[in-house]
Amino acid sequence: MITRTLEKIDWYKSSFELFEKSLNGSTTSPVHGLRREAIARFSELGFPTTKNEEWRFTNVSPIVKESFAPVFAHVEPGVTSDDVVRFSFGGLECSRLVFINGHFAKGLSTLVRTPLGMIIGSIAAVLRTDSHLANQHLGRYARFVDNAFTALNTAFLQDGAFVYVPDNQIVEEPIHLVFISTGTRPAIVSHPRILVVAGKQSRLSIVESYVSLDESRYLTNAVTEIVLGDGAVVEHDKLQLESSAAFHVGTIHVYQNQKSNYTSNSISLGGALVRNNVTSVLNAEGCECTLNGLSLATGQQLVDNHTTIDHAKPNCVSHELYKAILDGKSRGVFNGRIFVRKDAQKTDAKQTNRTLLLSDDAMIDTKPQLEIFADDVKCTHGAAVGQLDEEQVFYLRSRGLGLAEARDILTFAFASDVISRVHIDPLREQLDGMIQSRLREGRRSEN
User: Fold this and answer.
1) 142 or 8, which is more confident?
2) Which of 176, 229, 391, 443 has the most CB atoms around its CB within 10 Å?
3) Domain locations in the chain?
């Protein structure tokens, strides 16, 4: 494993040298200094192993052994507007930015009704034309000192989405960011970068979708940074529906200012190996943070959710609910950390993790954590792992339902507790349909 890791470090360093050559004159830009720092740090860190506490239950050797090729230029191989419609939400009129293998596809994207002064577009274009605002925030929150995947994303930072909402602006329609991976050979890696800056008293909804056109093998290594100004309200929905052979590492870092309100709904339905990192820093009084998550896995899938809510200042509130439904020989990991700093008095934090095991071979490793260094706080956490309630199954069967249908109804009810928290109606309805379809597919595969 050590030899393989060293070989892959050299592989990515060589890829970075090719990447630098493709940048031409832009190697003199401020962001390129950040890239060079990141590749140097990745070279020092290497890929994490199961000896690393943060990766103890997630073995990334399947990622390490593959020589994923970065995509340096934008192409649209076989992607049509009909494909984009397939990944959209029926009846929802909104601004939609489409990215193919990590690169902005202007011809497939749509912008509607943006408030005065708002910026929605490609981060590559912003860095070329008006980089001051982006450079002020880029890389400030998602630090790569101790995270190899964030370092790798930053080293190959080239394109992604930039959203800026000025002070006091309310964006009525959601902003949909669609990241489409295509089947190519050799296997590719994309490093999408998202930066969202919400001004004081602003309000907006962001939807991230990660999808694929086929069942090809690839790596998505995404990093999202979101900063909320005083009183800003942001709902952030992430749907991960990658190829069943793909790998997905997604890192979200949120920085909250006074009386801001951030809500995250993270839904993972695809991928062979998935790692979701979500960190929110409540860095001023009066902040509220809500993290919701749902994972649905079967076969040999592994879905790992790591969350951190950092109560850095007093009088803040956080809520967290993560659920997993595991079937076949799938595995789940949940590590939820609530950190209450010494001066964060009057903190109110609640964390809940629930897992439903639909087979005897499915497994979950769950580790809720409270690290409290203040004395005037209300903090609770809890985790539960179980199977379907046989009494409830019997009740439904006594009303004329078959065993499979009864199990599906109870499983869907378990999932809907999270799905119902998504406020965008078309997205919530689509997620309902996806969950029910997945349950039917699983039932057919057993027959």
Assistant:
1) 142
2) 176
3) 2-284, 390-447
